[in-house]
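Session log. Operator J.P. requested a structure for one protein chain; no other inputs attached. Running the standard single-chain path with token output.
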Amino acid sequence: MAAARKVVVSALQFACSDDVATNVAAAERLVRSAHEKGANIILIQELFEGYYFCQAQREDFFSRAKPYKDHPTILRMQKLAKELGVVIPVSFFEEANNAHYNSVAIIDADGTDLGLYRKSHIPDGPGYQEKFYFNPGDTGFKAFQTKFAKIGVAICWDQWFPETARAMVLQGAEILFYPTAIGSEPQDAGLDSRDHWKRVMQGHAGANLVPLVASNRMGKEVIDTGHGKSEITFYGNSFIAGPSGEIVASADDKNEAVLIAEFDLDKIKYKRLSWGIFRDRRPDLYKPLLTLDGVTPK
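Structure written below.
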């Protein structure tokens, strides 16, 4: 009998400054810490190079974007991944000629760049004005074959859509990863989405019988909008869920964290198959999912 196919995953969590060098150094320090704890695949939070600038609509913030090719942070993480023998999804603000994307590059354990995913669902609300900066992603949902597992990576707002998770798992993803930036709502101090946010992703893990890793930033960030100040307190609570949606590791809302969990992918695979959730699917009945109003075209 073949040896068990076990993989150790990690979610990182830290407060960002608005200095790229400081944040990239913090990410590298925590990646190294995760590696020391045995991690094989390590998730850094969304847009970790600086503050979450989408609190404001400012023309000058487009200067934060860089092309995918020869992106300095991706190159640094490729070198780090190769040195440590770990997989690192790297979130960044991508400039592609006149288009801009909220993107993630998947770096394999030998430092190879396996390709790009561009965020598909772009939010637009108080404090989260991403439509000003980002085009809707055009890559489609993907599963990336890494040294340790076939993984699906989507970004923040994507995590609220069950179709995203299902599409990645249908393509063979064995673990789902969601780099994130979410916190308080500037327009409503009484609105706390933290538990809702976690439960939705726990549902994705349970509905697809795969582990799920979510990495979120923490700390207060104040942005000058040009019309006053906007403030978000990011609530951290990064977590790792098991294949029945159970939380196996979690962080709080105030402290830096390196979360670790180990999964036996073959054991999970056979459990997933035995449940029949992919055997019993009826794609022929799902045509309303291809519409906006639920009316199936004739």
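Operator note: The chain has a mean pLDDT of 96.
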